[in-house]
Amino acid sequence: MSMSDNRKIAFEIVYSLVAQDTKYEEYKENVDMFLEARDIHGRATTKYIKDVVYGTKRHGKQIRKQIESCLSEKWTYERVSKVNIVILQIAIFEMLYLKTPYKVVINEAVELAKAFGDTKSPSFVNGVLATIVKNNQLDNKGETEE
């Protein structure tokens, strides 16, 4: 599976858990059932997916603060669609905690926004992530492409 496929699966799982308001204690069972139902195996694939799913939850408060810092006064976190929130959570987790190059992350997040969001989602996601890169000075760290 490609990393794009892995990100899509991670998005689907995180979105499902968020939409169902799943408690963290129930994550393992839900994630395992999802992976089994989709017949997803492979150590690298399942490790990445689980890292993203659990990491976005574990660092949820810090990630939420990052998103909120990018919203205009007219927008609250609760007003942003769940699709966009999940895409942003995954992207921010990858950039800040997995240290995935920001250019790769933004490109992949915009593609997820095109696939799952509304017509304004790609530009919204791109704008928020560009601000995250700037605020965290990720563009000054000489990252290499994935």
Describe, in plain words, how this protein is organized in 3D:
67% of the residues lie in helices and 0% in strands. By secondary structure, the protein is mainly α. The chain has seven helices and no strands. The model has no long low-confidence stretch (mean pLDDT 93). It has one domain: Orthogonal Bundle (N-utilizing Substance Protein B Homolog, Chain A).
Ends distance: 15 Å
Average of the residue pLDDT scores: 93
Query: Mind telling me which CATH architecture this is?
Result: Orthogonal Bundle
The CATH top-level class label: Mainly Alpha
Largest sheet: none
Tell me the structural class: mainly alpha
Furnish the topology, listing elements before pairings:
Elements: H1 3-19, H2 27-37, H3 43-58, H4 60-68, H5 82-96, H6 102-116, H7 121-135
Helix pairs in contact: 1-3, 1-5, 3-5, 4-5, 5-6, 5-7, 6-7
Task: Record keyword descriptors for this entry.
mainly alpha; 146 residues; N-utilizing Substance Protein B Homolog, Chain A
Quick overview of this protein structure:
With 146 residues, this protein is an all-alpha fold. The protein has one domain: Orthogonal Bundle (N-utilizing Substance Protein B Homolog, Chain A).
